[in-house]
Specification:
Elements (H helix, E strand, L loop, with lengths): L1 H6 L10 H22 L3 H4 L3 H20 L10 H11 L6 H8 L9 H10 L5 H21 L9 H8 L3 H9 L2 H6 L2 E6 L2 E6 L14 H16 L5 E11 L9 E11 L2 E10 L2 E13 L1
Antiparallel strand pairs: 1-2, 2-4, 3-6, 4-5, 5-6
Length: 296
């Protein structure tokens, strides 16, 4: 079988000790994934934060004790912290899978990682208080996400709006968004409105200036919210925002138009991710990313 896989160009090899291979991978996953999930930090940041390093150390030291009690030993267990930090650093600014699960409102793999260390520790009468604590905290985060997703239908949603979304009547949805009070006040109108992809314009006017003379960030966010809502609700489900990250890159000139483009870039089950770019004179002034729950 190994030869067949290698014949396809895959890097595959056999090992006489699969447990050492599994537990070597567990060192980094157990000690770093949960830290990322609970703090939101990526590897490049966490390894520079002493308190995060402290908890990583505590988690991997408990794992090492449990592994040895099971008769498992390999070189990386001599200094599990160094191995964990090196592995975490290699992820750079990428979000590990457990952090992605938390942000998307999905169940995590805590049951296959830290909770395994806890259960195996109990078998060998080895205390694992740090792994137990982070397991409890992660289960709490999962419960918070479940409660977020258990959103009851709001009585404030007009039947006509729900029907337009359910029937994917984009013309009706567009009209509803463009005639909302704030959109009217800012003269925001759509230039593109397709399933999962929308573009809108905020006309320039001196009334949008903040006290520093730049376009008010509230107006920019309102523009972004319009296209995010349009894209998220254009797929036949009511899109309810769960979280939103925004990054302002350049100051905008209030006298000039600002264009916002949104697109749904990922859907996993009932969760969608919407990306938005705000541009002025073809320069990106702000970018946003929103997680949305798609309610039936």
């Amino acid at each position: 079988m190994v030869n067949q896989f290698q014949g396809t160009g895959l890097d595959v090899h056999a090992t006489p000790d699969i447990n050492s291979v599994i537990w070597k991978k567990l060192i980094a996953n157990v000690s770093t994934n949960v830290v990322a999930a609970l703090t939101g930090l990526t590897g490049s940041t966490a390894i520079q934060h002493q308190q995060s390093v402290n908890i990583i150390n505590a988690l991997c030291q408990e794992l090492a004790q449990v592994a040895r009690a099971k008769g498992i030993d390999f070189p990386e267990l001599q200094d599990p912290l160094a191995f964990s930090l090196k592995a975490f650093a290699s992820t750079k600014d990428n979000k590990v899978s457990m952090l992605q699960d938390v942000e998307a409102g999905r169940p995590t793999e805590i049951g296959n990682l830290n909770e395994i260390i806890v259960s195996e520790g109990k078998r060998f009468n080895i205390p694992t208080p740090y792994n137990e604590a982070v397991s409890w905290l992660t289960r709490g985060v999962e419960e918070r996400n479940r409660q977020k997703l258990s959103v009851v239908e709001s009585a404030c949603e007009p039947d006509a709006v729900r029907d337009a979304i359910k029937n994917e009547n984009l013309d009706a949805l567009r009209q509803t968004l463009e005639t909302s009070p704030l959109a009217r006040a800012l003269s925001i109108h759509f230039t593109e409105f397709e399933p999962g992809r929308t573009t809108a314009k905020l006309p320039g006017t001196s009334q949008l200036s903040n006290f520093l003379g730049y376009t008010h960030t509230g107006a920019l966010f309102m523009l972004a919210e319009q296209v995010m809502a349009a894209a998220a609700n254009s797929l036949g489900h009511v899109g309810l925002p769960l979280s939103c990250d925004i990054e302002f890159l350049h100051a905008a000139n209030p006298a000039k138009d600002v264009i916002a483009s949104a697109r749904v870039i990922d859907t996993q089950g009932r969760i969608a991710r919407v990306k938005v770019a705000l541009t002025q004179d073809e320069q990106v002034v702000a970018s946003l990313s929103e997680m949305v729950f798609l309610r039936k």
